[in-house]
Amino acid sequence: MSKLNWKRIVVKVGSALIAPNKQGCSSHYLLGIAQFIANCRAQGIQVVLVSSGSVAAGRHHFSEVAEPNVTLKKAMAAAGQADMMAIWDRLFDFPSAQLLVTHGDLRDRERYVSIKDTILTLLEHGLLPIINENDAVTTDKLRVGDNDNLSAMVAAAADADALIICSDVAGLYTKNPQQHDDAKLIKQVNHIDAEIYAMAGGATAGGVGTGGMHTKIQAAEKAISHGIETVIVNGFEADNFNRLLKGENPGTLFTPFDKPMQEHLHWMTHTSQVQGELVVENDFDGALDGLPNQLTSDDVMAVNGEFSVGDTILVRRDDGTKLAKAQSNYSSCLLNFIADQDDGAFADEFQQKTGSIISDKHIAILENT
């Protein structure tokens, strides 16, 4: 591990550590994490904390509800967020700051940059940013859904060197260790592929959190492509954090790309969300070279979904092959209007006056998909 080279890290703490008994916040498992964060700061390492747990922390205020609906969960989040911030404040002797975000914030380029600037300014002034998804107000359309992936997006925005994901197991195993005695811990992963995802499985049934090992692998994939070293550790064992400070690997280490994606390309690939799609012919040959300059209304076979100017869209072939994610220069309404015109000269004249359908500054080529 490259601990000695860390300048900035993101630590992700899940709901099971915040409220292990679903009866409000508990500091029992948080003391070791808080000490680790304090030790990192003492060594000059900047820390960003991504903390789940608002719904779990607020559940005890609604104890008469057996199966809360979406509205009640939002109310639980509103109540629990204050409790969660209060317990973190009690554990630190330095100031912290709260940032509540949604995927709607992160996938909008202007708001994403604003979040990035806020995080870096807080760090510059010695505050600990504590970030969570804004569960009290977000909707299915605007939510990330799990704080594993959120932590990777935050790590990319913060230009972190390392992402530490605290789990309820030691790391990634060859099989589910709760079901198989012969499951072996994988100490290092140099490449994430289908086999790695197969080992991860799905979310744990009956758990406190919303993710599982699968979402942690997704987060690791996002982070390492940005050049961010990622470690999954058992957050219930305080000694793991002492080992991290010594430069040891107490869990599963995911090694970063040798050549990380550029920041803007990473955002387009891993954070922006597709709002619609353009379908082109199977023999379209402008897919990987000069796509922005070659994609015209004549190339588009179909426009799927509803999107506005500036939204992220998927460009794919008719056979389903994904070519690129890009920012649309036109709305779906306008593109459909152009397609409905019987006069081809209208589309040609429109194209000459307005230029490419997608932005040449906001595009991510999707190879071999």
Automatic annotation (TrEMBL):
PANTHER family: GLUTAMATE 5-KINASE, ISOPENTENYL PHOSPHATE KINASE. Catalyzes the transfer of a phosphate group to glutamate to form L-glutamate 5-phosphate. This is Glutamate 5-kinase. Pathway: Amino-acid biosynthesis; L-proline biosynthesis; L-glutamate 5-semialdehyde from L-glutamate: step 1/2. Keywords: Amino-acid biosynthesis, ATP-binding, Cytoplasm, Kinase, Nucleotide-binding, Proline biosynthesis, Transferase. InterPro entries: AceGlu_kinase-like_sf (IPR036393), Asp/Glu/Uridylate_kinase (IPR001048), G5K_ProB (IPR041739), Glu/AcGlu_kinase (IPR001057), Glu_5kinase (IPR011529), Glu_5kinase/COase_Synthase (IPR005715), Glutamate_5-kinase_CS (IPR019797), PUA-like_sf (IPR015947). It is an enzyme of class 2 (transferase). NCBIfam families: proB. Transmembrane segments: none annotated. ATP binds at K12, S167, D168, T210, G211, G212, M213, H214, T215, K216. It comes from Shewanella denitrificans (strain OS217 / ATCC BAA-1090 / DSM 15013). Its EC number is 2.7.2.11.
